[in-house]
């Protein structure tokens, strides 16, 4: 029998909830009255419960508002360093990101992986499978010939209406007919680049950027000009301006303004506005990858680059892959003045998407369940990111640097020199752990001391052990 | 009350079945003994039934085999003319098939269309929607996280196993890992061409060929070298050989060996073998588009070009779009020695297909229901093609030429000069009829007097009226 006093036993339940992330930093605790009713306890017990957790550093009292969950520990980590703006720019032609990714994939297949932290993806449990299954099965009963009828080439109208409606919150005014549905955001980026460039052209991208984009550039015969990018505020507009002045041949700019991959940076509105105006003035098409925006901590949507677009110079690419359903390949593109060309390219490249998944997504997006799902997803991811960051702070060698992003699925970790992310990747593999080495995120040799960790998995004891193991492996690289 | 003798009443029922296509040319009638048992009639009545239909020209007796359905009328049409092998070859660069197709699409949208005969697609009723819906719903119940789990990049293994198994019948020995699943055959063709060519290269194609392929070439900056192609035996290997000798820069050959679109031609085995060997000797990659093969009249599968491939020089592209489910975007590619490169390009272009549809297709393909479906589909399409051809023979101006293909979804109709397919297209539009003018099937001005008609729709009275209307409109073009 539990001999702890009642308030302690209840406090432990709330502590578990905080540790599991179902109560996250900033969340309001139930009020003292609610606690009394919920647990059928006296005022004294409810107050003792709250004060105990406050004393332990888990809650903070705010005058006239009640108790809120506070972060129990401050991360003893310095933020990732800002890029050196004086870095010379170098358009890296076809320098073999494909070869590097192939090596990475092949290595990953050589060892049995127990814990995969290399991706930028959420665990299936984060997504509303029960509701989606229900809608999908119902649709098959209602539209019996859905699987045997060819779809609409530019995308299902119901989905385009749902997307256009949602775009309003990001400050975009789009007609459903401005939108084309694609096989994921990666196809949208392909189409955007094919519409505005030709092989040999130079494209400005963030540095670091996700290897998926570098692969697209390489596969289309394009050169990447890597622009210094802040782990906090994203692409350096100053550096881009300089690059445009010194390289008069930049044919497009590709940017992930929100929760950039791998940095997690978010561009301030003023930067976004300046970027849109700069590209417009210079006549350079601006391609926006908006994959992660819905995963920010705040329920208040961030403004898309396209919000400031007055001339159709911004091509907006996005996806439901990370926010709604990783098993449905639904992306979309609003291609501005390249709409007709992108439509033709999409038709010639892969025809239409499947109606079935489009209708399923549309129906879910039009329900209140979608907002509820997003709130829950943001909440869970925030807890997972913070738990992962705390584990890194606890287990990684002193001098490790980290910014906990305000959303998204990943952490970008800077290791103290001379620890090498590539060597850590190789050592981790032999321990059954897969991580993404920093060298995958650039064509240049700039991110040797970095790794990217996936925070999309529930922060289980196994994940915590994995982080501890990684920390030990990293320490082995330090001189003794 | 019906006063006709019993044998006549029964004969009418069989006649209806023949007219509806459920008994098609070449089908065996039930034997006399079976007729006696089926209809509970005397030997005399059963014999009278058969002899009556024989006298009317619907059945033919074969010694010791019984009665078979024969075609009641011979088409009073000469076959489409063979191409002139002396035609000068001309690599047509970016000559604007996209613009022509855009015009075609835009025109089609200007008028309310009552009858659309412009496509190469089957009516939804031709496909097994009930069985697919059942499998799909069951899969969602069994694999509850299917919609929220990311798929495998090279394609679902169950589907690849099913495809590899089926490929055996076409004479191909493929491991499941030799196969990559794509978003339809059109994506497979894109990937194949991207793997073996670069912009500016010249590609040999059939002439005429489907505008989808010409669009792919134009969108990739490739030039089409159109090789004369027989309406009966497909690509002229002599002409291709000549072209290779006079243009030393042919970087790939794209061929639809079976039921070529729009011709419906089938290459004889000897031609296929010679083509594979020629391309191998010349070091020219050979891309095979196998979209329609399962739609041939015969249940005996035709041998794929890849059957003769000993060096991995043949890239086999195919699709389930026309044979299993037009609503599921499932294509595949066996890219021979370009496998790794195509896999990387597919990953960079659109990532993986949705697992849901892949698993649904795999389960259906592994059941006996798939073969039953294909037999029924072949049977129905044969009837529809023949009915359409008869209507053309009956209603189109004298001098119209036509080969009824041994399978597939379309008829390629040659109109007597000076009737213009483009003008007929415009006139038909105003009558609410959409057809595909021959000029869409070439970058050259060679097929002005042709049109393509879709036979994928049930041959209803409405379709018959439409053909009659088209015939009248065509006649208006003749000098009086």
Automatic annotation (TrEMBL), chains A, B:
InterPro entries in alphabetical order: Aminotransferase_I/II_large (IPR004839), HTH_trans_reg/aminotransferase (IPR051446), PyrdxlP-dep_Trfase (IPR015424), PyrdxlP-dep_Trfase_major (IPR015421), PyrdxlP-dep_Trfase_small (IPR015422), Tscrpt_reg_HTH_GntR (IPR000524), WH-like_DNA-bd_sf (IPR036388), WH_DNA-bd_sf (IPR036390)
Gene Ontology MF term list: DNA binding; DNA-binding transcription factor activity; pyridoxal phosphate binding
Keywords, comma-separated and alphabetical: DNA-binding, Pyridoxal phosphate, Transcription, Transcription regulation
Keyword Membrane: no
CDD domains referenced in this protein's UniProt entry, alphabetically: AAT_like (cd00609), WHTH_GntR (cd07377)
Annotated HTH gntR-type domain residues: 4-72
UniProt similarity note: In the C-terminal section; belongs to the class-I pyridoxal-phosphate-dependent aminotransferase family.
Name of the protein: DNA-binding transcriptional MocR family regulator
Gene source species: Chitinivorax tropicus
Lineage per the UniProt record: Bacteria, Pseudomonadati, Pseudomonadota, Betaproteobacteria, Chitinivorax
